[in-house]
Amino acid sequence: MTTSTPFTIKLSTNPTSQENRETILATPGFGKYFSDHMVSIDWSIERGWFDAEVRPYGPLSIDPASSVLHYGQEIFEGLKAYRHADGSVWTFRPELNAARMMRSAHRLALPELPLDLFIESLKQLVSVDKAWVPSAPETSMYIRPFMIANETFLGVRAAERAAYYVIAGPAGAYFAKGVAPVSIWLATDFARAASGGTGAAKCGGNYAGSLLPQKEAYANGCSQVLFLDASEMKYLEELGGMNVFIVLKNGTVVTPSLTGSILEGVTRESIMQLARDRGHKVEERKISFDELRDGFSNGDVAEVFACGTAAVMTPIVAIKGPGFVIGDESAPAGELTMSLRQELTDIQYGHIPDRHGWLTQL
Ligand code: COI
C-alpha cells in the first residue's frame, strides 16, 4: 500500500465543542487531552498494509490474547506540530521519526511502515484536527504514532498481524515547572538497556523498565532518572525519556555516543548541528559519571541539559543519588543551553529561517 491508496475519512459525530477545546488549549499540560480523531492502518503478513482510516478518537477493541498484551511487541514515536504566525502548521524532521520507527520495527520484529505512509498519516490527522494545534508560545500539538502486534496467538514468535495508529493532543511544557532547571536522580541499582538489547529502539518495554527508578527519582525531588551503561555502570547513557548533553567550560558540546543501547533522538541530532553551525566543537563519546561529578565541582563542566521532542531542551542543575547531591538546585539555567533552545524553537515556530530545510508543512 502506498499513499496513492486513499485514507477513508470517518468524521466524529460528537466532536469536542469549540468552547471546551479552547479551555483545553489554554492549559493543555502534556499527554492529558487528545484531539477528536485518530489514524489507524492494519497490517497482515498476507496483505501488507491495508484499511488506512482517519476515524473518531476512541477505545481500541483488541483480543485479550493479542501478542502486545503478553510480550510487549510495541513501538512508538513522538513528534510535534507547530502553529506559525500565519496559521499554517508544520512538523519537524518527520523523516527521521519515520526512519527510526522502521529501525524500531525491525528490532521488535514488527512490519516497517514506509516513509510516505508515515508522513501521510500525520498530514491526514492534522488536516481534520488542525483546530487542536494551539498557538500560544511554547505550545504545540504532540503527535504519537505507535504500532502494536495484535495477532491472537500466545506462541512466542513475531506476530503476523499488527496495527499502526496515530493519536495527537495539545501540549505545553513536559515538566511541571515549565522550562525551569531540573534535578536528576542517578540510578545506581538499575540500568535502562544492555548491549544487544532494545535500547536503541523506541519500544514501550524500555520505558516500562524505567518507571521504578523514575519513581525513586520523584521520591527524591528529581524530574528524571539518569541511567549509566549496564555493563560497567560507569558511563552516562540517557535519562528515562530523553537524551543528555554536557557543555565543557571551553564550549565543547558532548553527548554520549550511540552505542546501540541509546535512543537516537531527533532533538539530540538537531542540537549537535546547531552547535556545530555556531563553531562549537561537538563530541559524541563516552562520558564517565566521574567526569561529570568532578567537572561539576571543579568547573570543567559548565552546563548539563536534557533533550527530547517532549522536553525540548531542559537545563539540569543538580544530580542526586543515594547520599549525595552534586550541583546547586537553585542555580540558573546554562547560557548555551538556553540560547540553543531559543534557536531550535525559533526554527520550529517559524520565527527564523529554516536554513537546514527541517520543517514539513502538515
Ligand atoms: C518524546 O520526547 O517524544 C518521547 O517520546 C519521550 C517521552 C518522555 C514523552
Automatic annotation (TrEMBL):
Pathway: Amino-acid biosynthesis; L-isoleucine biosynthesis; L-isoleucine from 2-oxobutanoate: step 4/4; Amino-acid biosynthesis; L-leucine biosynthesis; L-leucine from 3-methyl-2-oxobutanoate: step 4/4; Amino-acid biosynthesis; L-valine biosynthesis; L-valine from pyruvate: step 4/4
Cofactor(s) of this protein: pyridoxal 5'-phosphate
GO process terms (BP): isoleucine biosynthetic process; L-leucine biosynthetic process; L-valine biosynthetic process
GO molecular function: L-isoleucine-2-oxoglutarate transaminase activity; L-leucine-2-oxoglutarate transaminase activity; L-valine-2-oxoglutarate transaminase activity
Reaction(s) catalysed by this chain's protein: L-isoleucine + 2-oxoglutarate = (S)-3-methyl-2-oxopentanoate + L-glutamate; L-leucine + 2-oxoglutarate = 4-methyl-2-oxopentanoate + L-glutamate; L-valine + 2-oxoglutarate = 3-methyl-2-oxobutanoate + L-glutamate
Residues bearing PTM N6-(pyridoxal phosphate)lysine: 202
Keyword NADP assigned: no
SUPFAM superfamilies to which the protein is assigned, alphabetical: D-aminoacid aminotransferase-like PLP-dependent enzymes
Keywords: Amino-acid biosynthesis, Aminotransferase, Branched-chain amino acid biosynthesis, Pyridoxal phosphate, Transferase
Pfam families per record: Aminotran_4
EC annotation from Swiss-Prot or TrEMBL: 2.6.1.42
Family annotation (CDD domains): BCAT_beta_family (cd01557)
InterPro entries: Aminotrans_IV, Aminotrans_IV_CS, Aminotransferase-like, B_amino_transII, BCAT-like_C, BCAT-like_N, BCAT_family
Keyword Amino-acid biosynthesis: yes
Physiological role: Acts on leucine, isoleucine and valine.
Family: Belongs to the class-IV pyridoxal-phosphate-dependent aminotransferase family.
Protein name: Branched-chain-amino-acid aminotransferase
Organism (species): Jezberella montanilacus
